[in-house]
């Protein structure tokens, strides 16, 4: 059995696989954190300044929508290359985990912001109006009405964004960002080591399934019965 296992996965260095998996998790965790920190306020601002909302402001909404749409429509592989000078300026390098996080955040934050805006639009307008009628401040409306009511939708948005970031981290391997994508490209593709490619793909699939399962459970938990 061991001989069969060795023959099928003879090129796989499990220590390298572990290090690459760790790099992928670090890229995912770091970029997801900054994506939420930037994308959530941006999504709330998009919602509040949108048509028929609390602070309707067509010029500001139009500008924010334009920026979000441009960044969302730019292919991530191109964004990686275009952002290299900016990434080096911020992190001092364009390689490794540190060099991957800035473009990952810039690529995912607008996407997440739009999902947050959509989740907030699904909140019953009557709840907002009732909160206003009680004399609540803007801060109270946002933190005591909007965000709690939209929590299941926002958690679903985080889940979708996290899964998108997994695919982005794999693409980041093209420019030497490390992780499972880098391993798949260097060994699986360039050296024709199919077993390495299969292992990296399976690990990425498992990661996506875990993220989706956890996200679904959280959405179910926080949804109204």
Search tags:
11 helices, elongated, 225 residues, MetI-like fold, mainly alpha
Fourth CATH level, the homologous superfamily: MetI-like
Largest sheet: none
CATH class: Mainly Alpha
Classify the secondary structure makeup into a structural class: mainly alpha
Uncertain runs: none
| Continuous helix count | 11
Q: How many structural domains does the protein architecture include?
A: 1
Order of helices and strands: HHHHHHHHHHH
Estimate the global geometry from the Cα principal axes: elongated
Determine the N-to-C terminus distance: 50 Å
Overall pLDDT level: 86
Gyration radius, rounded: 21 Å
What would you say the CATH architecture is? Orthogonal Bundle
Q: Which percent band covers the strand fraction?
A: under 5%
Oligomeric composition of the shown chains = single chain
Topology overview:
Elements: H1 2-8, H2 14-48, H3 58-73, H4 76-82, H5 84-91, H6 96-121, H7 125-133, H8 138-149, H9 151-172, H10 179-189, H11 194-222
Q: How is this structure best described in words?
A:
- With 225 residues, this protein is mainly α.
- The chain has a single domain (2-222), classed as MetI-like fold, CATH 1.10.3720.
- The chain is 81% helix and 0% strand.
- It has 11 helices and no strands.
- Helix 6 (96-121) packs antiparallel against helix 9 and helix 9 (151-172) packs antiparallel against helix 11 (194-222).
- The longest helix is centred in the N-terminal third of the chain and has 35 residues, at 14-48.
């Amino acid at each position: 059995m061991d001989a069969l296992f060795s023959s099928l996965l003879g090129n796989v260095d499990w220590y390298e696989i572990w290090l690459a998996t760790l790099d992928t998790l670090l890229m995912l965790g770091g970029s997801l954190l900054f994506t939420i920190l930037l994308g959530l306020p941006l999504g709330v601002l998009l919602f509040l300044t949108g048509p028929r909302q609390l602070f309707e402001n067509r010029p500001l909404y139009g500008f924010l929508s334009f920026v979000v749409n441009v960044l969302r429509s730019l292919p991530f592989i191109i964004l990686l290359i275009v952002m290299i000078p900016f990434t080096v300026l911020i992190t001092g390098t364009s390689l490794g985990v540190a060099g991957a996080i800035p473009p990952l955040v810039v690529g995912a934050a607008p996407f997440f912001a739009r999902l947050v805006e959509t989740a907030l639009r699904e909140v019953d307008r009557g709840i907002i109006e009732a909160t206003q009628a009680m004399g609540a401040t803007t801060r109270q409306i946002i933190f005591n009405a909007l965000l709690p009511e939209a929590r299941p939708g926002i958690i679903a948005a985080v889940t979708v964004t996290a899964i998108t970031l997994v695919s982005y981290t794999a693409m980041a391997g093209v420019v030497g960002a490390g992780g499972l994508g880098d391993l798949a490209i260097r060994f699986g593709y360039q050296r024709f080591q199919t077993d390495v490619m299969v292992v990296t793909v399976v690990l990425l699939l498992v990661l996506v399934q875990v993220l989706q399962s956890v996200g679904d459970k959280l959405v179910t938990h926080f949804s109204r019965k």
